Structure prediction request, 644 residues.
Amino acid sequence: MTIPNLLSSRRGASPASLIILVAVTAMLFVFPAFMKSPYALHIMILFFLSTIMGESWNIIGGYTGQYSVGHAAYFGAGAYTTMILLQYKQIPPWYGFIAGIVVAAVVALVIGAICFRLRGPYFVLASIAVAEVLRLCALNLKDITNGAEGILVTEIPPLKLGGVVITDFLSKVPFYYMGLSWALITILVTWIVQNSKLGYFIQAIREDQDAAHSLGISLSLYKNAALLISAALTSIAGSFYAIYIGFVDPPTVLSLDISVQIVLICIIGGIGTIWGPVVGSLVLVPLSEILRSNLIGETIFKAGFVTESSGMGVFLKEHLAHSHALIYGILVVVVILFMPDGVLGFVKKLMAKKKQ
Amino acid sequence: MIVFLQSLISGILIGGVYALIGIGLTIIFGVMRVINFAHGDIMMVGMYLTYILFTVAGIDPFVSIVITIPLMFLFGAVLQKVFINRIIGTLPQNQILLTIGLGLIMSNTMMLIFTSDYKILSTSYSSSSITLAGISISQPLFISFVITVAITAVLYWFLMKTDTGQAIRATAQDREAAQLMGINVKWMSILAFGIGSFLAGTAGALISPTYYIFPQIGSTFTLKAFVITVLGGMGSIIGATLGGVIIGVAESLGAVYISSGWKDVVVFVLFLLVLLFKPAGLMGKSRM
Prediction:
């Protein structure tokens, strides 16, 4: 009863869905008090990170219809800026977040100037090319970025928030709240964008660029505005990732895989909707963790399909942990072929059918 | 001067192989308007096929293309029939993501089977070279260039002179009009994807004696293939041939005169410049 309301409300949330939203948020805030397991917190942090990444891409990809497959550029810009400032200049990462946003915004303006003249497939290709140039720069500018070796952070300075001083960055709790807050902020920003004039303009651009243009909507202004917001949020995700993991190098923050992964979160959840990226993260994060921790392999052994010592068993044990990218691939193909509107769209469709 | 000529020639030689990859991508795009993001991964499959044939059966990589070509053609045709066919004419982002997904499946399946170790296919002539007027030319690169030229020539003949080739070109020019003229466009699409993937697979086979073979090699070549086709003009075969050679030379000169780390940046900057100032590509107007 209530879930369909949450799913179907397009403008202005229904009371029931608001209550659920508040309840879930409250539960998320008290979660660390009950759950002490660092692993559970780790998964939740990954979930928040993935939500931030997905929501931020959604603004430019889902709402504006500009399918950037180069968002690693902003992710990497945020991550590298924060890490370089922290490790070489001893500037606390909290300022690094802001510096990262500035750098990402500059990168976004350059990318916007180059890519927004192009449409469709050309835009996609150009966005990939710019991100690749950035990756190669990070790899080759060894004086600034330490090249392929990457940057390892040794110590995070304490954070003063009002009267509270947080120093304990070895535990996952500060990162949990940081991730949760950023995820909520990104969702809020997406909601504001969706219901603002900017939101209507960019959705008009998505539906028909030329028609929007003929109605007097400045294409370059609003596309760039959407890209700036998206880039800033992605850079926050990058900075957050960098201080959480404590290490950056070109393959982990600037590769094409990151860009693809960001797009996947949205596509799998449902593109151009507020909750799409959240659903996408709910599907992808546990899935990749299950695959990484080899739960599937153990289940197969326990169920007795294959014995652990047999040739097949050894093979499965060695390889299944590395197969998450394969499952990603299969998931994408299945989603595109059978659920082109993402999981959220698919669920909506099923419900609409049931109602009939 | 010798250094310049040396790198120019090796650039042209490797450019020939790049051209094969680019032509494959451009034919697929021309006929189906689908950008194949799995193109480099198809090439990677060709590399592994060559590697298996070499290690298991001991067949020389340049001889084994006789087996690789039909297998890769079949592989592409099946891919088209099962997956790509369903998304022709749908939203471009769905096409892009589907091919990205297929690429991920290919590279990760290879990783499951062969692990991500770098494999080296070393033949007796892998590092030997021919010296011609003071310029030494890598022997495997030279042989692969000769084979590339032969394949390209046959392909031109096929597309220009045979009925099937003309039907493919007609489909590329106007899918609906071609259908009205009685051309089986579905069959042409399968044929085009088959040709595209056998070209990519052959390119993979040809470079396998000189490159490391590993599952993630695909994405680099996918990007290169895009650069080549956009440079030449999407859908133009002559353009892709030209684009391949230009990129090969740019890379080779960039590696010598700037540094090998920055040579890919040269390629991408060239790509962005073309996108900005001549988005239709060098041969953009003439279709196939």
